[in-house]
């Protein structure tokens, strides 16, 4: 591999799935170099040795990935990479947990090749990806599917800017720097938009904003 040329990593215990995913990354996304790992430990060793990994895909069911330290280790060694969870689970709690640990996307394994390629292109373009029908958690036992809670129209212009920044995965400090605000002010804006959108946390807000971007 030439120095500086971005590569991808697939970490999944299923060798056949790694093979299929590797073919998609090469054919649809143009990656020439694909590293494969069957465990979190093996994946972190690759990430430490290969700083040019631009995209890292992890199966959430691998040993270690169900614990927070697994995702934390991945994010530590893949600070410059887009990290995506590819999972057999479609539970909202799993999606929000993964996003809260700083991943850039969550793709169910039931997605077809075309949907998978589209999702990864969204991530590589700088947005967060989740399946739209799973984006908003159910409220009071009612599943809203793709219908977001009402309230976006009540957001101020600054709150909409902050919401858009959340969708890009920015921290409060980064948002404050982007808009010339104090971190305390950013926290106030986040709290206000969560209340207006009836969302439980910033991870859910990021999912909501990413979904709205794609439907716009």
Summarize the structure.
This protein has 216 residues and is of the alpha/beta class. It has 9 helices and 5 strands, in the order βαβαβαβαβααααα.
Describe this structure in words.
The protein has 216 residues and is of the alpha/beta class. It folds into 2 domains: 7-130, Response regulator (Rossmann fold, 3-Layer(aba) Sandwich), CATH 3.40.50.2300; 152-215, Orthogonal Bundle (Arc Repressor Mutant, subunit A), CATH 1.10.10. It contains 9 helices and 5 strands, in the order βαβαβαβαβααααα. The protein has a 5-stranded parallel beta sheet, sandwiched between helices. α1 crosses α5 (113-124), α2 (40-49) packs parallel to α3 (68-77) and α4 (92-100) packs across α9 (202-215). The termini are far apart. Mean pLDDT is 80; it is low at 135-150.
Outline the secondary-structure elements.
Layout: E1 7-11, H1 15-29, E2 34-37, H2 40-49, E3 53-59, H3 68-77, E4 82-87, H4 92-100, E5 105-108, H5 113-124, H6 157-167, H7 172-179, H8 183-197, H9 202-215
Parallel strand pairs: 1-2, 1-3, 3-4, 4-5
Helix pairs in contact: 1-5, 2-3, 4-9, 6-8, 6-9, 7-8
Could you give me the name of the CATH homologous superfamily of the largest domain?
Response regulator
Largest sheet: 5 strands, parallel
**Secondary-structure-derived class:** alpha/beta
Could you tell me the CATH topology label of the largest domain.
Rossmann fold
Question: In CATH terms, what is the architecture of the largest domain?
Answer: 3-Layer(aba) Sandwich
Measured distance between first and last alpha carbons: 39 Å
Query: Which stretches are poorly predicted, pLDDT < 50 over at least 5 residues?
Result: 135-150
What is the β-strand count?
Answer: 5
Strand arrangement in the largest pleated sheet: 2-1-3-4-5
Name of the top-level CATH class of the largest domain: Alpha Beta
- Average pLDDT confidence is 80
Strand content: 5-15%
């Amino acid at each position: 591999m030439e120095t500086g040329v971005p590569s991808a990593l697939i970490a999944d215990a299923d060798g056949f799935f790694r093979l299929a995913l590797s073919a998609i990354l090469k054919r649809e996304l143009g990656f020439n170099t694909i590293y494969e790992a069957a465990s979190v430990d093996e994946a972190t060793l690759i990430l430490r040795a290969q700083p040019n990994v631009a995209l890292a895909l992890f199966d959430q069911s691998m040993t270690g990935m169900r614990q927070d330290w697994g995702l934390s280790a991945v994010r530590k060694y893949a600070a410059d990479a887009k990290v995506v969870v590819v999972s057999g689970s479609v539970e909202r709690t799993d999606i929000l947990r993964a996003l809260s640990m700083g991943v850039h996307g969550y793709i169910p394994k039931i997605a077809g090749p075309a949907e998978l390629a589209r999702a990864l292109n969204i991530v590589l373009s700088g947005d967060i990806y989740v399946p739209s029908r799973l984006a908003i958690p159910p409220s009071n036992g009612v599943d809203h599917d793709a219908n977001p809670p009402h309230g976006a129209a009540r957001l101020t212009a600054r709150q909409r800017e902050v919401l858009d920044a959340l969708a890009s995965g920015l921290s409060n400090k980064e948002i404050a720097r982007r808009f010339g605000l104090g971190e305390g002010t950013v926290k106030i804006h986040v709290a206000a938009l969560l209340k207006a959108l009836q969302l439980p946390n910033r991870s859910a807000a990021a999912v909501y904003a990413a979904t709205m971007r794609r439907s716009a």
